[in-house]
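Entry:
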Amino acid sequence: MSLQLLVTALALSLSSLSSLACNKPAEEAPVVAAAELAAPANVKRIDIAVNDGGFSPSTIELKKGEPVVLRFTRTTKSECLKAIAIPDLKIEKDLPLNTQVEVAITPQKEGKMVLQCWMAMVKATINVVGS
């Protein structure tokens, strides 16, 4: 086999392999968390402003077992508020600037939960009461 033919065959093989590497098999596709699935239109939605003053409202009243969508809109450039967390529900979500982000939750336990920035410096309270 000539050197030029060998180089051409090698180049074609590498080209085929590189195109396969870019295509992940279906089983490796990211799993969508329940909090990111679209909620039905009739579910209660609560708007939460995320600004230089923190979260507004700073206390959110919810009913146990009632699905709700929290709609966050960040208008501050603060790095601290670029993402939120609800540790009790194992939820973490990025908040792009000036973009509404929806987080669907269904609280299962009565009591208080913390809604906080990703750095745990700015906090709000989610108060879950019986239905």
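Strands lie at 44-51, 54-56, 59-63, 68-74, 83-86, 91-94, 100-105, 111-117, 123-129.
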